[in-house]
Protein 1
Amino acid sequence: MSGTRVLVLNSGSSSVKYQLLDMSDSSRLAVGLVERIGEQSSRLRHTPLATEKGAGESREWTGPIADHDAALKAVAEELAKDGLGLDSPELAAIGHRVVHGGKHFTEPTVIDDAVLAEIERLIPVAPLHNPANLTGIRTAQALRPDLPQVAVFDTAFHTTMPEPAARYAIDVRTADEHRIRRYGFHGTSHAYVSRATAKLLGKAPEEVNVIVLHLGNGASASAVRGGRCVDTSMGLTPLEGLVMGTRSGDTDPAVIFHLARVGGMSIDEIDTLLNKKSGLIGLCGDNDMREIRRRIDEGDEQAKLAFDIYIHRLKKYIGAYYAVLGRVDAVAFTAGVGENAAPVREAAVAGLETLGLAVDAGLNAVRSDEPRLISPADARVKVAVVPTDEELEIATQTYALVARYRNAAPPRGN
Ligand SMILES: Nc1ncnc2c1ncn2[C@@H]1O[C@H](COP(=O)(O)OP(=O)(O)O)[C@@H](O)[C@H]1O
Ligand SMILES: CC(=O)OP(=O)(O)O
Ligand SMILES: [Mg+2]
């Protein structure tokens, strides 16, 4: 390996977030996002942060981008305009967020044909995410066949979950035959944020127990004891757990039988209903917390009920993970909602004073990109806002993996 740059691709079902980083100092050279892939009005926003000419203006482009292959090629073109093209000898590796790694992948992994086949085999349990991840990998391989491509799995951090937390109480043979268990997702974020929270408390990760609340469009909670995940709210797929932007989270599984038998819906229709038309959008027609807060301020009852359902579920998970951990040092809020929505943080811990949890209204109102405490100074359990950085974490893990090969034979894509 010669270069020190890593390109990180975080491919979602209809978007790609990307960052080019220089790992000699973990600085970001360029960042961007392609949204609404597959629609007529796809949007690419690219921001060069450190080129030979310094930081540049953000560039935006709107038009049809058919799929993740076209999206990544458009990203490569934007990078090339800034002299940061994928053909650069400075590029050491490309790191990919892969959402479902099953039980098999516990570590970042150099991608070869066998790894690709396993990611493909897992599509049925991550139908929104793994296909996009695969396309991102294949396109990146085609653009730079000589470079190591590394997969960093959302599930990896959760593979430490003990069996009582990871197993569903269903027939053991059936579960094992179909590999049905709780895998958990957003692990890169839970790992990063739990470590950053320990740092904020001035402690080592091994010394602290943290409840991490990753509240983005997808949302999950995790219980982290001494740096290891012991429980998390997402399960076989990213549908279980908290109320999300478009996903229901926990429901009685019999809702599905009922909708099929009595409602006459097909399995695919129910899948779409629970994954894409439920959660906040199903409850009130909006999945963006900013819009929901605006409607609540205008006295909208439907938005208020959606918010209250969201908070009720969140509070239940805080209580559950308090019980799982026994001792909690901190509760950390992260991702789009967790980092920005002060009313969500306030409501989630309201009334939990007997558990030692409280939020200081003044501190909670402060806007900042830095990790910070928002609990009163004398709080027994600290409440923190800790911005996540999945891309930096993926770049760090990717670079560490390829650096291990520095004096050995370099890892190859294929
Ligand atoms: N200023 C804000 N106030 C409240 N909520 C916000 C704010 N900014 C973003 N959000 C919420 O964050 C969500 C996106 O979170 P993010 O972590 O980027 O999600 P994802 O990675 O799943 O796309 C938005 O849908 C919105 O609900
Ligand atoms: C796993 C998952 O839910 O990811 P995202 O939040 O990116 O949709
Ligand atoms: Mg996210």
Protein 2
Amino acid sequence: MKSFIQISFDSHFPIQNLPFGIFSTQQNPTPRVGVAIGDQILDLTAITVLFEHHVSELKSPSNVFSQSSLNSFMSLGKPLWQATRRFLQNILSNDNPELRDNDQLRQKAFVAQKSAKMHLPAQIGDYTDFYASKEHATNVGEMFRGKDNALMPNWVHLPVGYHGRSSSIVVSGTDIVRPCGQRLPAKDHPPIFGPSAKLDFELEMAFFVGSGNKPGERIPIDQANKHIFGLVLMNDWSARDIQAWEYVPLGPFLGKNFGTTISPWVVTLDALEPFLVNGPTQDPAPLSYLNHDVPSAYNIQLEVKMKPNKSDFFKTLTRSNLKYMYWSLKQQLVHHTVNGCNMRPGDLCGTGTISGSTEDSRGSLLEITWNGQNEIDFENGIKRKFIEDKDEIVLTGYCQGDGYLIGFGECSGKILPALQ
Ligand SMILES: O=C(O)/C=C/C(=O)CC(=O)CC(=O)O
Ligand SMILES: [Ca+2]
Ligand SMILES: [Mg+2]
């Protein structure tokens, strides 16, 4: 498969990918639906006539694609997402002259990514964050609760999660203000109030729910993929000192709800299908509603880089892989609805921090520096235990195809000083 658009060998967005996002430009500041191809964006509102000719199942393309979120498109369901994707691959193909040889339409339809502003891809009604990496849960549990209580007994039986805060989810490139809150200055001291001194990132991915389920209904495991629209990178910024003091007995609250960053391009499950692999062996076997015996993990290589304040260089902090996750995306979605909880188009589910079994694949500074016991060295004598003001964190990820990448672009954010 080859496009008439030039795609560099290291592009995250070849014709095999075609992720969906919401963008605007200076000439046309109205946010609308686009698809990334190479270093360009195909503006779907510019080719609605082609949709009318070729994808007649899609009833009002001009309405669906002129929205400032993907929610409308997501709610149409998987057969229409797939028909749209097939059509886009066809119209972008080097063998198809319809768009390739129509200079006037090409002028209108393509926008350089570097001149576009990206927006949140969806209006996120509800956001849930899971805790699905056994290595991460064990590491954090050990630091917060001690070695003997590291992994709670329920953890191997169900995908543990908590309800997060959707209002503070932002798109890549948005600055995050350091949170203030209560923390213990030392063990057995009363709490003090002030800026978090242990600000951290969490390397995560997240899936967008496409079509939802009605209240009281549940999504069965063999239907789960029909409900998942696609995946993004996610950084669940975490204030470890606020978290450690507040989270018992109910779990994460102000330590995590001040900001969560996601990447702008939603990569569809169809684009990721060639990268399905077996996940870790689940022992004990999960209850039958969570049971799947087909490959359900995705081989997605992940990396986190940091550029400390006053440095010009990024340093890689960790390399991990989505396939390390103990609980699959399908199991997370199925468990979320097993009690009849309804999901809606645009709901976002974070996977939880993705740590591997080695020290260089840990998905947070909490684990990398072991709660600040060790320091990370950067250029020019700069050292870090946690994130300082004006430090920048960038997450990236891709699948390695045969001669192409299926990439997610970047999920970046810089920390601004706390409000006085
Ligand atoms: O209660 C704990 O031990 C820790 C909870 C979390 O850190 C929640 C979280 O964000 C989970 C994750 O990212 O894996
Ligand atoms: Ca998290
Ligand atoms: Mg968060």
Protein 3
Amino acid sequence: MKTALSIAGSDSSGGAGIQADLKTMTMNGVYAMSAVTALTAQNTTGVTAILNVPAEFLAKQIDAVFEDIRPDAVKIGMVSSAELIETIAKRLCAHHAVNIVVDPVMIATSGARLIDPAAVSALKEKLLPIARVVTPNIPEAEVLSGMKIETKQDMETASKQICAQYRCAVLCKGGHSLNDANDLLCTPDGTLRWFEGKRIDNPNTHGTGCTLSSAIAANLAKGAPLDEAIRRAKEYLSGALADMLDLGHGSGPMNHAYLLSCNE
Ligand SMILES: Nc1ncnc2c1ncn2[C@@H]1O[C@H](COP(=O)(O)OP(=O)(O)O)[C@@H](O)[C@H]1O
Ligand SMILES: Cc1ncc(COP(=O)(O)O)c(N)n1
């Protein structure tokens, strides 16, 4: 069985972060492991507290995983401090990690800030260069590229710029403000490819970014080429959104287990 590691924060409400990643990886057919960067006290309406793990402890978790069950892919999600980002980059390089998917988590769907402003440059300088693909949403792509994104053309320009500067593939997700749920992949050879997605009329989108990046990592772990891993990941995500789970008082989670029957 292929294996994948999520390095991310815990979401106590189970819809995003480590919890979404483990469910997604499992449902995408790989053995899922975790290295927790932070605990969040969180539900569908917001984040009330964040407790980062000490950097040495994060390093121990990553080492423990690599020294025993080597991951075929690694997804990186919420990492809120520069020290933790640097620790991850060092440990992944030491272990020659492959298929690294970086979801540059900055602001939760509920509006909470999940990264220190001072850590953004560490994210750019240390994690993007080791990524097989980075998956910003529009506001994150604006921060990474330094430009405002208002049109499809802007998405293309910003993605090309991030891709050229950090030499990694960029999947710019259109879920937020632009067009349907169409995402743009830009690869270091300069190729652009749009992944068309039909917008599902569901306000419960907590954890969509975490889920997409974990599904990409799982499919890369299984040996899919990047574009096929993205295609399968979008298909899984659309199915989970279309199941119309409705939990909590805010933007709720998706049904990660929609492929299993919930009937008795
Ligand atoms: N309502 C929706 N219907 C279908 N796909 C969506 C919807 N909202 C977001 N997506 C898709 O979910 C993925 C995550 O996108 P997005 O919500 O922008 O990320 P994030 O959670 O990081 O803000 C993308 O593939 C995007 O196209
Ligand atoms: C621990 C943690 N990690 C990431 C997110 C982002 O989630 P979303 O996909 O809703 O923006 C989150 N809300 N909590």
